[in-house]
Amino acid sequence: MTEFCKIMSQSENENEIEVADGVFVRRRTFLIGGLSSTLLGGLMSSIPLRKVFAQSDTFSYEQFLSLANPLAKSLVGDTSTEGQDQYLHSLAAIAARIKTVPEPVAWNDSTQSFKPGTDIGFTPGGDGFTVLHWRMAPNTQIRLHRHDYGNVVTIGLGGDARVENYEIADNDQDYIPGKSFRVRKTVDQQLTPGNINLVSLDRNYIHGFTAGPDGAHGLDITTRIRPKPDHGTPYLSVSSNAADEARQIYEAEWEE
Ligand SMILES: [Fe+2]
After folding, report:
1. What is the pLDDT of residue 25?
2. DSSP reduced 3-state for 88
């Protein structure tokens, strides 16, 4: 039995839990399905306890929606940095358990790549959020782009893709193409099935994808929390060499 399973095997009424053979700690947080009550936040208040899942549970898309829709409604109103964190982490906790997703009715070419091979399809059912299914042919790219009105939970469903996230390191920039400024790389991740990548409007808000040799597909669960701006999607070009390797600072500019 793993240490984690030992924790999960304890009664809710016990004050001490065994985290390793003969090693006990005093319970500070009520654990459900491997997730603390702090993380679950609004989920706890909006979903009956009997429906909270066990560690091994996986969800169909319909089961995911039955949990995600009330959860999103209860948490989406707090658009502070911390509120977005709670929203995204809570939604991600159940999105990570999705194993089957209906095929989108239609696939459309993504406008976010330099060449064909990246497609987007809409999967209905989200209440307050949009579920987009993406698929990438081997070695294709979705360009680095900024999210400035909708946050995102990305989940890998198949294959693998490198996901990079950046934030602006200087004072926030207007979208002036060709004007140099500095960004910080905050995430450099291999997204494989079940992995999650989060974009809030305050963290990791520029992201791009590079599919591996077998291609990749997954979901983007996007939630608009600000009005859509007049400008189109801002795309970013980043220098290949870091200006400050230790801090992962790079020179960058917005593309035309
Ligand atoms: Fe995006």
Report:
1. 38
2. helix
Asked if residue 225 has pLDDT above 90, the reply is: yes
Strand runs labelled E in the chain: 16-20, 23-26, 31-32, 35-36, 59-60, 98-100, 107-109, 118-123, 130-136, 141-146, 150-168, 181-191, 196-199, 206-224, 236-238, 249-254
Amino acid at 231: H
**Token pair for residue 11?**
């009664």
From ligand 1's centre to the CA of 151, what distance in Å? 9
Q: Is residue 31 within 8 Å of residue 38, measured between CB atoms?
A: no
Other Cβ atoms less than 10 A from the Cβ of 209: the count is 25
Measured in Å, residue 66 CA sits from the centre of ligand 1 at 25
Kindly list the structural domains of the chain, giving each domain's residue range(s) and its CATH number in brackets, ordered by start: 1-32 (no CATH), 105-254 (2.60.120.10)
Cα(234) to ligand 1 centroid in Å equals: 11
245 Cα to the center of ligand 1, angstroms: 25
Rounded to 10 degrees, what is the CA torsion of 148, 152, 158, 160? Answer: 50
Share of the chain above pLDDT 90, in %: 66
pTM: 0.78
